[in-house]
Sequence to fold (324 residues):
Amino acid sequence: SPLRSVAPLGLAFTMAEILLSLTIIGVVAAITLPSLTGNINERTWNTQRKALYARMSQAIALMPSLNGYGTLTAGDSSNSAQDTATETFITSGLSKVLKINNICDSDHLEDCGIPAKLSTIAGSVVSTPETLVSLNSFFNTSKAYSNGVTMSYSQLDTKAAAFETANGESILTYYNPNCVSAMGETGLHYIQPKMCVNFIFDLNGTKGPNTVGKDIGFMTVFYPTDSLVVAPMPLNSRAVGLANWQDAVPLCRQQDEQGRVPNIDELASMFVNRYILNDFSGESYWSSSKFDANKFWVFEMYSGRKRPFTAADSRVTLHCIKRY
Fold:
Protein backbone atom coordinates (compact mmCIF):
# COMPACT_ATOMS: atom_id res chain seq x y z
CA SER A 1 0.00 0.00 0.00
CA PRO A 2 1.22 3.56 -0.63
CA LEU A 3 3.18 5.18 2.17
CA ARG A 4 1.21 7.72 4.18
CA SER A 5 3.01 10.66 5.84
CA VAL A 6 2.13 11.18 9.45
CA ALA A 7 2.78 14.51 11.26
CA PRO A 8 5.19 14.04 14.15
CA LEU A 9 3.52 14.28 17.50
CA GLY A 10 4.24 17.11 19.94
CA LEU A 11 4.97 19.88 17.33
CA ALA A 12 1.68 21.78 17.54
CA PHE A 13 1.56 25.10 19.42
CA THR A 14 -0.59 25.42 22.48
CA MET A 15 -2.92 28.40 22.93
CA ALA A 16 -0.69 29.73 25.70
CA GLU A 17 2.36 29.65 23.40
CA ILE A 18 0.47 31.44 20.63
CA LEU A 19 -0.70 34.15 23.02
CA LEU A 20 2.82 34.56 24.39
CA SER A 21 4.23 34.92 20.86
CA LEU A 22 1.62 37.52 19.96
CA THR A 23 2.38 39.42 23.15
CA ILE A 24 6.11 39.47 22.34
CA ILE A 25 5.40 40.65 18.79
CA GLY A 26 3.14 43.39 20.14
CA VAL A 27 5.76 44.62 22.60
CA VAL A 28 8.48 44.67 19.92
CA ALA A 29 6.15 46.53 17.54
CA ALA A 30 5.26 49.07 20.22
CA ILE A 31 8.95 49.72 20.83
CA THR A 32 10.10 49.93 17.21
CA LEU A 33 7.09 51.48 15.47
CA PRO A 34 7.55 55.05 16.80
CA SER A 35 11.19 54.98 15.73
CA LEU A 36 10.28 53.69 12.26
CA THR A 37 7.51 56.26 11.94
CA GLY A 38 9.88 59.03 13.05
CA ASN A 39 12.46 57.98 10.47
CA ILE A 40 9.83 57.95 7.73
CA ASN A 41 8.61 61.41 8.78
CA GLU A 42 12.16 62.74 8.85
CA ARG A 43 12.89 61.47 5.34
CA THR A 44 9.60 62.92 4.10
CA TRP A 45 10.30 66.31 5.69
CA ASN A 46 13.84 66.37 4.26
CA THR A 47 12.51 65.72 0.77
CA GLN A 48 9.85 68.42 1.19
CA ARG A 49 12.40 70.94 2.50
CA LYS A 50 14.68 70.41 -0.49
CA ALA A 51 11.81 70.77 -2.95
CA LEU A 52 10.46 73.91 -1.25
CA TYR A 53 13.91 75.48 -1.09
CA ALA A 54 14.41 74.85 -4.81
CA ARG A 55 11.02 76.37 -5.71
CA MET A 56 11.49 79.42 -3.49
CA SER A 57 15.03 80.03 -4.74
CA GLN A 58 13.84 79.87 -8.34
CA ALA A 59 10.91 82.22 -7.62
CA ILE A 60 13.08 84.81 -5.84
CA ALA A 61 15.57 84.73 -8.72
CA LEU A 62 12.75 85.63 -11.15
CA MET A 63 11.76 88.77 -9.23
CA PRO A 64 13.42 91.96 -10.55
CA SER A 65 13.75 93.48 -7.06
CA LEU A 66 12.55 92.59 -3.58
CA ASN A 67 12.29 96.02 -1.98
CA GLY A 68 9.77 98.84 -2.33
CA TYR A 69 6.51 96.88 -2.08
CA GLY A 70 3.63 98.38 -0.11
CA THR A 71 3.42 101.47 2.04
CA LEU A 72 4.36 102.09 5.65
CA THR A 73 3.02 104.44 8.30
CA ALA A 74 5.21 104.68 11.36
CA GLY A 75 3.56 104.15 14.72
CA ASP A 76 4.39 105.84 17.99
CA SER A 77 6.38 104.29 20.84
CA SER A 78 3.41 102.21 21.97
CA ASN A 79 2.14 101.18 18.56
CA SER A 80 3.97 99.30 15.84
CA ALA A 81 3.84 100.55 12.27
CA GLN A 82 0.55 100.05 10.47
CA ASP A 83 1.13 98.63 7.03
CA THR A 84 0.26 96.19 4.28
CA ALA A 85 3.82 95.93 2.96
CA THR A 86 4.25 92.17 3.49
CA GLU A 87 0.83 91.36 2.08
CA THR A 88 1.56 93.56 -0.96
CA PHE A 89 4.93 91.87 -1.45
CA ILE A 90 3.15 88.51 -1.67
CA THR A 91 0.19 89.60 -3.81
CA SER A 92 2.00 91.94 -6.21
CA GLY A 93 5.41 90.29 -6.29
CA LEU A 94 5.85 86.72 -5.15
CA SER A 95 2.52 85.43 -6.50
CA LYS A 96 3.65 86.40 -10.02
CA VAL A 97 6.51 83.88 -9.92
CA LEU A 98 5.24 81.23 -7.48
CA LYS A 99 2.02 79.20 -7.48
CA ILE A 100 0.05 80.40 -4.45
CA ASN A 101 -3.42 79.16 -3.48
CA ASN A 102 -4.33 81.46 -0.62
CA ILE A 103 -3.01 84.71 0.91
CA CYS A 104 -3.80 85.85 4.47
CA ASP A 105 -3.20 89.20 6.15
CA SER A 106 -1.82 89.58 9.67
CA ASP A 107 -5.29 89.34 11.24
CA HIS A 108 -6.12 86.01 9.59
CA LEU A 109 -2.89 84.00 9.62
CA GLU A 110 -4.72 80.90 10.88
CA ASP A 111 -6.72 80.83 7.62
CA CYS A 112 -3.47 79.92 5.86
CA GLY A 113 -2.74 77.08 8.28
CA ILE A 114 -0.40 79.06 10.54
CA PRO A 115 -0.57 77.71 14.12
CA ALA A 116 -0.97 80.12 17.04
CA LYS A 117 1.87 78.38 18.89
CA LEU A 118 5.18 76.92 17.78
CA SER A 119 7.53 74.50 19.51
CA THR A 120 11.06 75.87 19.36
CA ILE A 121 14.05 73.70 18.57
CA ALA A 122 14.69 73.63 22.34
CA GLY A 123 11.22 72.21 23.00
CA SER A 124 9.65 75.31 24.57
CA VAL A 125 6.35 76.61 23.21
CA VAL A 126 6.12 80.22 22.01
CA SER A 127 3.42 82.36 20.44
CA THR A 128 3.77 82.70 16.68
CA PRO A 129 5.36 86.14 16.05
CA GLU A 130 3.02 88.38 14.05
CA THR A 131 5.44 91.22 13.25
CA LEU A 132 9.06 91.50 12.20
CA VAL A 133 10.06 93.02 15.54
CA SER A 134 8.27 90.31 17.54
CA LEU A 135 10.34 87.83 15.51
CA ASN A 136 13.53 89.77 16.31
CA SER A 137 13.54 92.88 18.47
CA PHE A 138 16.84 94.07 16.96
CA PHE A 139 15.05 95.14 13.78
CA ASN A 140 13.78 98.47 15.12
CA THR A 141 16.68 99.48 17.32
CA SER A 142 19.18 102.09 16.23
CA LYS A 143 22.76 100.96 16.76
CA ALA A 144 26.09 102.67 16.62
CA TYR A 145 29.61 101.33 17.03
CA SER A 146 32.85 103.26 17.16
CA ASN A 147 36.14 101.50 16.56
CA GLY A 148 37.48 103.42 13.62
CA VAL A 149 34.10 102.76 11.97
CA THR A 150 30.70 104.23 12.84
CA MET A 151 27.58 102.34 11.80
CA SER A 152 23.90 102.79 12.42
CA TYR A 153 20.58 101.50 11.14
CA SER A 154 16.93 102.06 11.86
CA GLN A 155 14.12 99.82 10.64
CA LEU A 156 10.36 100.08 10.89
CA ASP A 157 8.32 97.21 12.23
CA THR A 158 6.15 95.44 9.65
CA LYS A 159 3.22 93.09 10.04
CA ALA A 160 3.58 89.48 8.96
CA ALA A 161 1.38 87.90 6.29
CA ALA A 162 1.02 84.31 5.14
CA PHE A 163 0.24 82.19 2.11
CA GLU A 164 -0.37 78.59 1.15
CA THR A 165 1.53 77.09 -1.77
CA ALA A 166 0.05 74.85 -4.43
CA ASN A 167 1.98 71.99 -2.77
CA GLY A 168 0.25 72.46 0.57
CA GLU A 169 2.91 74.28 2.60
CA SER A 170 1.89 77.13 4.91
CA ILE A 171 4.40 79.98 4.84
CA LEU A 172 4.57 82.86 7.31
CA THR A 173 6.32 85.88 5.79
CA TYR A 174 8.20 88.83 7.32
CA TYR A 175 9.22 91.64 4.99
CA ASN A 176 11.60 94.61 5.06
CA PRO A 177 10.65 96.94 2.16
CA ASN A 178 13.74 99.10 2.80
CA CYS A 179 16.35 96.35 2.38
CA VAL A 180 19.61 97.27 0.68
CA SER A 181 22.37 95.51 -1.21
CA ALA A 182 25.78 94.59 0.13
CA MET A 183 28.19 97.51 0.00
CA GLY A 184 31.40 95.51 -0.20
CA GLU A 185 31.95 95.88 3.52
CA THR A 186 35.32 94.70 4.74
CA GLY A 187 34.84 95.25 8.48
CA LEU A 188 32.20 95.42 11.18
CA HIS A 189 28.67 95.90 9.85
CA TYR A 190 25.07 95.01 10.65
CA ILE A 191 23.03 92.48 8.69
CA GLN A 192 19.56 93.90 9.48
CA PRO A 193 19.39 96.36 6.54
CA LYS A 194 20.38 93.57 4.14
CA MET A 195 17.49 91.25 5.07
CA CYS A 196 14.59 91.57 2.61
CA VAL A 197 12.33 88.61 3.44
CA ASN A 198 12.15 85.90 6.06
CA PHE A 199 9.93 82.83 5.66
CA ILE A 200 8.87 80.44 8.42
CA PHE A 201 7.39 77.41 6.69
CA ASP A 202 5.16 74.60 7.91
CA LEU A 203 5.48 71.61 5.62
CA ASN A 204 2.17 69.97 6.53
CA GLY A 205 -0.11 72.91 7.27
CA THR A 206 -2.46 72.40 10.21
CA LYS A 207 -1.07 68.97 11.11
CA GLY A 208 1.44 68.53 13.95
CA PRO A 209 3.94 68.45 15.44
CA ASN A 210 4.51 72.16 14.58
CA THR A 211 8.10 71.90 15.81
CA VAL A 212 11.14 73.76 14.49
CA GLY A 213 13.59 71.29 13.00
CA LYS A 214 10.81 68.86 12.08
CA ASP A 215 7.85 70.07 10.05
CA ILE A 216 8.75 73.73 10.64
CA GLY A 217 11.82 75.49 9.26
CA PHE A 218 12.91 78.88 7.98
CA MET A 219 14.44 80.59 4.95
CA THR A 220 15.92 84.07 4.77
CA VAL A 221 16.49 86.21 1.69
CA PHE A 222 19.20 88.87 1.69
CA TYR A 223 19.69 91.74 -0.80
CA PRO A 224 17.00 93.21 -3.10
CA THR A 225 18.80 92.27 -6.33
CA ASP A 226 21.10 89.31 -6.95
CA SER A 227 19.34 87.96 -3.88
CA LEU A 228 20.72 85.20 -1.68
CA VAL A 229 18.39 82.56 -0.21
CA VAL A 230 19.66 80.55 2.77
CA ALA A 231 17.93 77.88 4.86
CA PRO A 232 20.16 76.40 7.58
CA MET A 233 19.04 73.60 9.90
CA PRO A 234 20.66 74.10 13.33
CA LEU A 235 21.50 70.74 14.87
CA ASN A 236 19.94 71.72 18.20
CA SER A 237 19.31 74.70 20.42
CA ARG A 238 22.69 74.59 22.13
CA ALA A 239 26.03 75.60 20.75
CA VAL A 240 28.98 73.22 20.97
CA GLY A 241 30.90 75.75 23.07
CA LEU A 242 34.02 77.89 22.83
CA ALA A 243 36.56 76.76 20.26
CA ASN A 244 39.17 78.09 17.88
CA TRP A 245 38.42 77.79 14.19
CA GLN A 246 40.85 74.91 13.57
CA ASP A 247 38.77 72.70 15.88
CA ALA A 248 35.40 73.79 14.46
CA VAL A 249 35.04 71.29 11.60
CA PRO A 250 35.89 68.12 13.59
CA LEU A 251 33.70 69.27 16.50
CA CYS A 252 30.69 69.60 14.17
CA ARG A 253 31.38 66.15 12.73
CA GLN A 254 31.51 64.74 16.26
CA GLN A 255 28.12 66.26 17.01
CA ASP A 256 26.57 64.76 13.87
CA GLU A 257 28.08 63.03 10.85
CA GLN A 258 26.29 65.61 8.67
CA GLY A 259 27.28 68.50 10.94
CA ARG A 260 28.78 71.55 9.25
CA VAL A 261 30.14 74.92 10.32
CA PRO A 262 27.58 77.46 9.04
CA ASN A 263 28.68 80.14 6.59
CA ILE A 264 28.20 83.78 7.53
CA ASP A 265 24.86 84.09 5.68
CA GLU A 266 23.47 80.98 7.40
CA LEU A 267 24.41 82.50 10.75
CA ALA A 268 22.65 85.71 9.74
CA SER A 269 19.51 83.67 9.01
CA MET A 270 19.79 82.00 12.43
CA PHE A 271 20.10 85.44 14.01
CA VAL A 272 16.92 86.64 12.26
CA ASN A 273 15.07 83.56 13.58
CA ARG A 274 16.64 83.46 17.04
CA TYR A 275 13.19 83.72 18.69
CA ILE A 276 11.94 80.42 17.26
CA LEU A 277 15.33 78.81 17.87
CA ASN A 278 15.08 79.91 21.50
CA ASP A 279 18.61 81.28 21.09
CA PHE A 280 18.99 84.48 23.10
CA SER A 281 22.67 84.02 23.71
CA GLY A 282 25.13 86.84 24.10
CA GLU A 283 27.67 84.94 22.05
CA SER A 284 29.62 85.26 18.83
CA TYR A 285 29.50 82.28 16.45
CA TRP A 286 32.17 81.02 14.06
CA SER A 287 31.38 80.89 10.36
CA SER A 288 33.09 78.93 7.59
CA SER A 289 33.39 82.13 5.51
CA LYS A 290 36.94 83.43 5.14
CA PHE A 291 37.79 87.08 5.64
CA ASP A 292 41.42 86.73 4.60
CA ALA A 293 44.22 84.16 4.90
CA ASN A 294 44.25 84.30 8.72
CA LYS A 295 40.74 85.41 9.65
CA PHE A 296 37.17 84.13 9.40
CA TRP A 297 33.90 86.01 9.67
CA VAL A 298 32.18 85.77 13.05
CA PHE A 299 28.53 86.65 13.70
CA GLU A 300 27.41 88.38 16.90
CA MET A 301 24.06 86.93 17.96
CA TYR A 302 23.57 89.71 20.50
CA SER A 303 23.63 92.55 17.96
CA GLY A 304 23.37 91.35 14.35
CA ARG A 305 26.92 92.37 13.48
CA LYS A 306 29.46 90.42 11.47
CA ARG A 307 33.13 90.92 12.11
CA PRO A 308 36.45 89.18 11.34
CA PHE A 309 38.32 87.13 13.95
CA THR A 310 41.68 85.36 13.76
CA ALA A 311 41.34 81.61 13.35
CA ALA A 312 43.32 80.87 16.52
CA ASP A 313 41.00 82.92 18.75
CA SER A 314 39.31 80.63 21.29
CA ARG A 315 36.79 83.20 22.59
CA VAL A 316 34.26 82.37 19.85
CA THR A 317 31.40 79.89 20.17
CA LEU A 318 30.56 77.17 17.65
CA HIS A 319 26.99 76.29 16.62
CA CYS A 320 26.76 73.55 13.99
CA ILE A 321 24.10 73.02 11.31
CA LYS A 322 22.97 70.54 8.69
CA ARG A 323 22.24 71.49 5.09
CA TYR A 324 19.64 70.03 2.77
Observations:
- The mean pLDDT is 84.
- The longest helix spans residues 15-62.
